[in-house]
Fold this sequence. Notes:
Elements: H1 2-10, H2 12-18, H3 37-46, E1 51-56, H4 59-70, E2 75-77, E3 86-93, E4 96-104, E5 111-114, E6 134-137, H5 143-153, E7 158-162, H6 167-183, E8 188-191, H7 199-207, H8 214-245, H9 247-250, H10 261-277, E9 282-292, E10 295-301, H11 309-321, E11 325-337, H12 345-356, H13 360-372, H14 392-398, H15 406-414, H16 445-461, E12 466-477, E13 480-491, E14 516-517, E15 521-528, H17 537-547, H18 555-564, E16 568-570, E17 576-578, H19 580-591, H20 600-613, H21 619-639, H22 641-652, H23 660-666, E18 671-674, E19 681-686, E20 693-697, E21 706-708, E22 713-722, E23 732-738, E24 750-753, H24 760-766, E25 824-828, E26 836-837, E27 844-845, E28 853-856, E29 867-870, E30 879-881, E31 898-902, H25 912-915, E32 918-920, E33 923-925, E34 933-936, E35 947-950, E36 962-964, H26 978-982
Parallel strand pairs: 1-4, 1-7, 7-8
Antiparallel strand pairs: 2-3, 3-4, 5-6, 9-10, 9-15, 10-13, 11-12, 11-14, 12-13, 16-17, 18-19, 19-20, 20-21, 22-23, 23-24, 25-31, 26-27, 28-29, 29-30, 32-33, 34-35, 35-36
Helix pairs in contact: 1-3, 5-6, 6-8, 8-20, 8-21, 10-18, 12-13, 12-17, 13-16, 19-22
Amino acid sequence: MLVHLFGRSLLRPELRRLGVLRRCLCAAQSDPCPATPQRADMIRNRAQIKRVLCVAEKNDAAKCISEIMSGGASRRREGMSKFNKIYEFEYHLFGQNVTVTMTSVSGHLLGQEFKAQYQKWHSCNPVLLFDAEVEKYCPDNMKQIKRTLEKEVRQCQALVIWTDCDREGENIGFEIIDVCKAVKPNIQVFRAKFSEITPNSIRRACETLTEPNANVSDAVDVRQELDLRIGASFTRFQTLRLQKIFPASLANQLISYGSCQFPTLGFVVERFKAIQAFIPETFYKIKVLHEVEEDTVEFSWKRNRLFNHTACLVLYQMCMEDPIATVTSVTSKPKSKWRPLPLDTVELEKLASRKLKISAKETMKIAEKLYTQGYISYPRTETNIFPTTLALGPLVEQQTQSPVWGTFAQRVIDQPGGPNPRQGKKSDQAHPPIHPTKHSSTLQGNEGRVYEFIVRHFLACVSQDALGQETVVDIDIAQENFSTSGLMIIARNYLDVYPYDRWSAKVIPVYEQGSQFQPSAIEMADGQTSPPQLLTEADLISLMEKHGIGTDATHAEHIETIKSRMYVGLTPDQRFLPGELGMGLVEGYNSMGYEMSKPNLRAELEADLKLVSEGRKDKQSVLQNHIQKYKTVFIESVRKAKKLDEALSPYLGAAQEIAEAEQQDMEMPLPVRKCPHCRQDMVLKKKREGNGKFLSCTGYPACKTAVWFPDTVLEVSRDDGICPTCQPHPVHMLKLKFRRGSLPPMMPLEFVGCIGGCDETLREVLDLKYLRAGGGGGGGGGGGGGGDGGGARGGGGGRGDNPHPPAPRPPSSNPRAPPPTVPSWTLQPRPPGGAGVGANSDAIVCNCGQDALLLTVRKDGPNQGRQFYKCNGGSCNFFLWADQPSQQAEPQSRAPPRLAVVSSNIPGGGRGPERGAGRQGGQTMCNCNEATVTLTVQKDGPNKGRMFHTCGKPRDQQCGFFLWADENEPPAAVFGGGAAAKKGKKIAGEAGPNKPPAAKKPRTCGICHMPGHTRVTCPQR
């Protein structure tokens, strides 16, 4: 067998690829395998194992296992961790004598955490934690243990995992494997399976070494990652919000959330609200009393009780009119009180809480210690069936030494058939029920009480039921039936060793069927229904088990969490009472529509985790499914966060009034794009002064990349749309709203654009410096109107998906060289129809294609008496002043249009006068090479009354040409023209010998573009 075991380890990678790796090993004598080169290698390599590293889950376990394997002759030495010793001894393993080095960890060696940029509470929007990258790391308090493993494994040829045989133990085992294989990749790995630390169990584990189960470990990885993501996102959200809303009550309190602790809290709140909502009802019943010598027998009414007073009164009066009782039947039958089922973890927690008044957490802590000391079997088990392979006789015989229950243990051995356990129906196929493994009379305090309970429970379940004889007497009075019963105990059996159960005898007189007697009293009594009681810890554990919240190993932890967070308290009789914060949180989340305090979501996860551990579901699919499920709930919860405030107000006082600006600050911004320099998220933030916003890198202050929007931008917000071209993906679009008059009339004041760099005109308008090499200038499609391009700071050309645009070109030696192409703005989609003046007709046509209606302004004001055209049917937004028949109305779209950048294909030309504009006979020509029309700006703003040239074609056919009538060249301030234009530098073609020099512009700030200060002293910096 050992030969095959060793060989399987060597061939594991090859067998995995072939899909034929088997978990069971055939016995050596039954192996028909011929001698092959691979088998020869196995035998040859087996001889290379001289030293084996064994790792247990705790130091106590390592010490006990070493004592058993070495026969008490192990040598102890110190490891790098003072809490985890190293034991060395010789042992016969793999068919030969090897040197064994036994050490331990202290629970989980590695933990899961977000990458550094997500660890700070204000580092990102909590919703991003559902998708943020998670990594495994070694906590500081475990690093010495990790170093010990790394040092010891270098000298070993095989690694045996001796961690607890449950999900958590398997996961800890794989953490040990990962650490050891990082140092020694070719180390052979084996798994020891055991349920108790006894000589027989340890010897059997050494003889049946197997391989670790990756599926079971994967289930723990999924749970850990989900708990981290769900807990961190909800905890950050509700803590940061509620601390501001209720500063007096929650200023310094952590308001945690967990997908298990909240349903647990929900059970407590639900029971409390049921009690509050309970309305007691009055009921009525009849009872009959019969005194015989010194005993009084009470006969109960077969109807039990009535809620109608009149009906009960009528029946009572009938009984009083004829108060003779006739015995209708006397029945005697055997009665048994069943012995308890074998003990599993949940039953241990519940019974210790009820009978011993010890909390579940304390009980499991004591049970773990008793297990590692070898007094009891593994305490985390879901099994309540003793396997037939487990010899119960020797276990009972050990307890005959006890002066307290030794006599009873001997009775169990002597009873017919020996120990005969009552069997349950549950089995986890891993561990037997909890039972004592050796006798002790030296344990003190709660350890002694828990050990005594486990021993007495074990002896009780393997003995016999208590036996008795029950007598039931039925009587009739005026056709109303009453009954009483008596009990005579014949054999107490298990009750002699199990004082936690009560079964009392009840003596009644002898009655004969058909006999009659006069009752001593017939009474009509009333009472009230009573509400259910608050939950005890045992009740709560039962509900958690019933609804699949947590596992037998985690119930106590979740209960302790809601107690430590002050979500619940305990009454003097140890019942759970919800606190004000706990009540408000549950009511708030339930009012959102997602009943997060209900067990459904977590129960689904626990069921999926079980399927993962069995290999029936894939780890990644389960993980992604539940991440998306909880992410949807989280987004909805944030959207309805005010319901949480409203639910908590009755308990914590009036909610603090939060200004709208601060409300937006509390709602942490979502990322717009990745920073082109450090690759961290860039988010919209509010400026310290004013209502403006800026785009900032979350890596600040290490990274100072930012986009400061000019004052002409009134509003900016993140759009859900994503640019299909800009990198690194995703780059979200922005909704922008500009001040009136800051853009040419043909450009909408509200639109959705991309700041990733592909939208070159937007780069010019917003002066997107962060896209330039070295963080300077406003990049984009070319420089200014002349050959200077982007000037000394900017880079001409280059797409926004390139984080490092090309260096600026040197100035051209030819002042008449054509400037680079500048794109034009084009609305998408265009308004339907062609509103405007027809080419060969004087009729005014609206956007619908119908004749427009001529009306006159009646309101007082500067336009009173002025005529205008509008849509005759009212179905479009067409508008045109009658005294300006060539001007076209600009339709107002209901949703902000998206802007696209279109470069002109006209040779040497682009947009308007920068490219194709010219003069023929003193008349200005547009890009279509046709005469322009001159219009006047009517909108309020700095340009009101100013005249400009534009294309004279109908609106849907216009080429997009624009030129102010009082300028020979387009204004550099509007269309960017690069940094040189903004700085007021001289541009080719702007001034000539026949034109006086332009007035010098005042110096403006490079951040907010306002005069009077510089970038260094800017208040928005």
